């Protein structure tokens, strides 16, 4: 079927003009695709709603589950026109969850390795999780592990050279 299908305008992100995959509503009442509004806020160093120009923050982003379900249903109904169903996004990690993960890893080297693997998994699940890492102290945690490794390496190197 070469028939062109019209996409409902409220399914389109006002920034990217693409179908929203993870719609979020901001405090101004406007809905954007999460990826687009986060790029607007963080990459462009903007702090205002692109439509209303009112000040917003990253904490203003609330998932618009109803709109996401409507978009998913519409995609499913129009699959014969080549429209792909949009997957439900993975839930975001919270700052307390990351802080607990780091705290629980401090007891042993094995726990730190497990923690590092889990952090890598978390960051690959959702780009938004990267921003939560900084707030939860992940850079300091990683720096501590690297410095311990360097100290251990230098110690072992000295022992080997002195034998």
From TrEMBL:
Tell me the Pfam families matching this sequence.
Answer: ARM_PUB (PF25598), U-box (PF04564)
Primary enzyme class: transferase
Q: Does the keyword Ligase apply?
A: no
Its EC number(s): 2.3.2.27
Q: In which pathway does it act?
A: Protein modification; protein ubiquitination
Gene Ontology terms for molecular function: ubiquitin protein ligase activity
- Function comment: Functions as an E3 ubiquitin ligase.
Protein name, UniProt field:
U-box domain-containing protein
